[in-house]
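Example (one chain per record):
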Amino acid sequence: MFDDERVSPDDVAYQMLVRIPLGTVVLEEVAFRAVLPVLLDGIERSTPSVSSAVLFGLWHVLPTLNTLDINEVADPTSRVKAVGGGVGATAVVGWLFDWLRLRTGSVTAPMLVHWSANAVSYAIAAHRRPTRTRLSS
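Predicted structure:
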């Protein structure tokens, strides 16, 4: 994903400090932890929303497919497994984020955890660029 010398430290900083927190975390946490559970389950809820968590998982289908395309994963079986695993994992994480919101009474805690996880993952990926072996002709 980051086998590209054009990804500069400034690009990584922008992604981690601006795009991820504002373009991903705030949007997703407000939508999936604050608005959607109320619309789906009613105002009084005492348990994390399963329906919101499943929708959170499904929300990540297109980003998973994009990542598979970037990494040139063409095998249909591998793609189905990756998308299924991605949906399942993000649904579980969504449920845990909703539990955290209920436990703390605020979307701030899941926002901080979500941002931390995404930013750390991005930083690790940016610093672990895969090396590609080039065949000489």
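Caption: Confidence is low (pLDDT under 50) at residues 133-137.
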